[in-house]
Structure formats: structure tokens, C-alpha cells
């Protein structure tokens, strides 16, 4: 079945018909056509793919052969507007930027360096005039804008750690989308983070940290609080620094607080770093003190014991002399003999030394079967000597071989 022509084509054909009828009534009759001309062939019926031909009557002269008007066939499917691709953009100046020179930091979660990373990138965006890619409306039909946005997105992906990249990665990303993803990663739940971070900031103490490290930690916490929307002013930082200062530098607090105007955070840092250097130069180092203690003299060795004496020679000589004379011993002699025996026994008993019980295992160390001069030797004693207050490693010690003096006898 043939598709009917559109309405505007039908209206145009009717207008042509009316104009042709008016011209026919006003013009003289045309001569009859010659009989020798063959009759015209019947027109074929129109098909769905064949154009419809409508005869038109010329208005100028009736003898002019009729003209034809070409009408295209109606489309079989509705027409859809095809997307128009942006024109090719010229080479962008952002392609020559080496971002590692402008942003030498790689963003990390622990420890967080988001504040410094964000500041450096904002400076880069301001230098090249591309801040509208973060806060403006996208322009996908602008080829130059699309190319610059791809460069900025590549910068952001290049300066984050692999862990953060896996968290903020997007399909068909834009610079604004990646920037907001990184921002939400660090600044979501700002109030809760500010509570814990503020507590850590106000409880920080110097301890054994250097002055430079102490001031750096304070500044990092203050910057993170400012990113969360809770900034700390300069005077509050100075007062918090005084609170956690090492007691070694308490004398500097009245010196700084008496200045007019009140010193800034950077001025206090410069003053206290100089004081730290001066105190370190004036006080001795712990290594020098330890070396002085280790040079103490070694203990003196114990004196050698005296050899024992024989006390039975005098008594044997008196007994042999009495046997040769054949006399019985006198009463006085017996008394003197008994008194001599008792005095000799007391002297002998006085010379016998009772060794004290060993404090350690007697089967360890060095054991002597007979008296000999004491040889001071302590296993493990090196160049520095034995450890002070250490127990003796032997079953006996030098005091066991020291002879004791006999008690005084009365005549």
C-alpha cells in the first residue's frame, strides 16, 4: 500500500491545481494534438519505495508541457537526533605540566597529610586557572574543557597512595568527582573527628621529643582541626604549647609571656629552639658520665694466709728430759705441767679457725685440698673488673683463708 504524501505536499498540489485551472480559462484553446503521435502509456501504480509524481501546470503558457514535482517517500522509522561529537581541541598547555614537581607529596591515610596535599593542589589549580573544573558546571560539548579535565583527573590519581586510589576510583571520572571523593574520605563526620582530634591536641606533651618535633606535631593537629571546620587561632596554639612544655624549659614561660605584643607561635618556636641548643651544649652527655663510672679502680686482692706452726715440740722435749733423770714429777711440776697443757691447749684451740658455711653450692668453683696462698681470680671479670655487689662465684672466699689472731692469754 502506497504511503500518502504529507499534508503540506497535498496543500501545495491543490494550490497548483487551482492556479492551472485559472490559467486554462484565460488562455486561448490549444491546437489539437497530431493524430500520428502514439498514445501515452498508462502510469504504473506507486509502490512503497517509489516516489509519488504530481503533474503541475505552468502558469506562463498553456502550450508548455506539464512539469513534475518530486515528493520523497515518508520514512518508515522515526528520526532520532545523533549525538554531535565535539570538535578536535588544540593541544592543551596542561600536557606539559609535570605534577610531581608542583605536588611532591603522596596522599596517605596514616599518617594523614591531607591538609598539606590539598593546599599544594589548590595552588596548582590557581596557577593554571582551572578552578572552574572543581566548582563550576561541566561543559561536555567543549573539546578544550574535556581535555583539560582529563589532565586534572590524571594529576589527582597520580598523587594518591594505592590504598586511596582503590577507594576513590571511578568509571568515566571527572576532576570534580574525584576531588569530592577524596574530600569526603577525610572530612566526613567532621564533628566526631574534631572531638577526638581536639582532645589529642590539648593533651599533647613534649616529653623527650625535640623542640622542633614538638612544634611540628602541634601545627599538624591545628591544621587538621582547621580542615574540619574548627580552626585554632595563633594565641590558643601558644597557650597550649606552654601547657605541654618540658619542665626543663619552664623558666622561659614568663620571659615569653611578658613580651608586648604577645609572641606568635613561630616566634616562640625560634626562641625555644635556641634555648634547647644552648642547654645541650652546657650539660654533659650521658656517654661521658658512663665512661667516668666505668673507669673506677678494681678491688685490692686479699692478703695471703700465714703457714701453721707446730705446738707439740716443747711438750715432747720436757717429757724426754724427765724420763732420763728417773724422778717422779713434783706437785708443782704437775701443776705447772697441767697449767702448761691447758695454756697450750687454749692456744691450739685459738689457732684453729672454724670455716663459715658457704653461701653457695660448695661443689662449684675452685676447691683446694690444702691451704695455699689466695689467688684472686673472678671468672667473667674483664677489663672493667667485677660488677659491684655481685656474690662470689666460689664456695669459699678470701676471708676463709685469712688467719685469725689467737686470743690474749693471762700469765
TrEMBL record:
Pfam families: Retrotran_gag_2
Region (Disordered): 20-48, 283-349, 380-411
Sequence ranges of Pro residues compositional bias: 29-45, 298-308
Compositionally skewed regions (Low complexity) per UniProt: 331-349
Domain of life: Eukaryota
Protein name from the UniProt record: Uncharacterized protein
Organism: Lolium multiflorum
Amino acid at each position: 500500500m502506497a504511503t500518502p504524501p504529507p499534508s503540506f505536499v497535498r496543500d501545495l498540489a491543490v494550490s497548483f491545481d487551482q492556479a492551472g485551472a485559472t490559467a486554462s480559462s484565460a488562455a486561448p484553446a490549444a491546437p489539437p494534438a497530431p493524430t500520428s503521435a502514439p498514445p501515452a502509456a498508462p502510469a504504473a501504480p506507486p509502490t512503497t519505495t517509489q516516489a509519488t509524481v504530481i503533474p503541475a501546470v505552468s502558469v506562463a503558457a498553456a502550450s508548455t508541457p506539464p512539469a513534475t514535482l518530486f515528493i520523497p517517500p515518508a520514512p518508515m522509522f522515526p528520526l532520532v537526533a545523533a549525538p554531535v561529537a565535539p570538535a578536535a581541541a588544540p593541544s592543551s598547555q596542561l600536557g606539559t605540566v609535570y605534577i610531581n614537581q608542583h605536588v611532591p607529596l603522596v596522599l596517605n591515610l596514616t599518617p594523614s597529610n591531607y591538609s598539606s596535599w590539598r593546599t599544594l593542589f589548590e595552588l596548582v589549580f590557581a596557577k593554571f586557572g582551572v578552578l572552574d573544573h572543581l566548582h563550576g558546571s561541566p561543559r561536555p560539548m567543549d573539546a578544550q574543557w574535556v581535555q583539560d579535565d582529563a589532565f586534572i583527573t590524571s594529576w589527582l590519581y597520580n598523587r594518591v597512595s594505592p590504598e586511596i586510589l582503590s577507594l576513590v576510583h571511578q568509571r568515566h571520572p571527572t576532576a570534580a568527582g574525584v576531588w569530592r571523593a577524596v574530600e569526603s574520605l577525610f572530612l566526613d563526620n567532621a564533628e566526631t573527628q574534631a572531638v577526638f582530634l581536639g582532645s589529642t591536641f590539648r593533651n599533647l606533651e613534649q616529653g623527650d621529643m625535640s623542640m622542633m618535633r614538638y612544634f611540628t606535631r602541634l601545627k599538624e593537629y591545628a591544621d587538621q582541626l582547621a580542615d574540619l571546620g574548627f580552626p585554632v587561632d595563633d594565641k590558643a596554639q601558644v597557650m597550649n604549647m606552654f601547657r605541654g612544655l618540658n619542665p626543663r624549659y619552664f623558666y622561659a614561660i614568663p620571659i615569653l609571656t611578658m613580651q608586648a605584643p604577645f609572641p606568635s607561635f613561630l616566634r616562640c618556636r625560634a626562641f625555644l629552639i635556641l634555648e634547647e641548643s644552648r642547654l645541650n651544649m652546657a650539660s654533659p652527655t650521658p656517654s661521658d658520665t658512663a665512661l667516668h663510672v666505668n673507669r673506677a679502680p678494681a678491688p685490692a686482692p686479699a692478703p695471703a694466709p700465714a703457714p701453721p706452726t707446730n705446738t707439740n715440740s716443747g711438750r715432747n722435749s720436757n717429757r724426754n728430759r724427765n724420763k732420763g733423770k728417773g724422778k717422779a714429777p713434783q706437785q708443782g711440776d704437775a701443776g705447772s705441767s697441767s697449767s702448761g697443757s691447758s695454756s697450750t691447749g687454749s692456744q691450739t684451740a685459738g689457732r684453729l679457725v672454724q670455716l663459715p658455711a658457704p653461701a653457695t653450692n660448695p661443689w662449684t668453683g675452685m676447691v683446694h685440698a690444702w691451704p695455699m696462698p689466695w689467688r684472686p681470680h673472678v671468672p667473667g671479670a674483664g677489663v672493667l673488673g667485677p660488677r659491684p655487689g655481685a656474690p662470689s662465684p666460689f664456695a669459699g672466699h678470701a676471708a676463709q683463708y685469712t688467719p685469725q689472731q689467737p686470743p690474749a692469754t693471762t700469765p
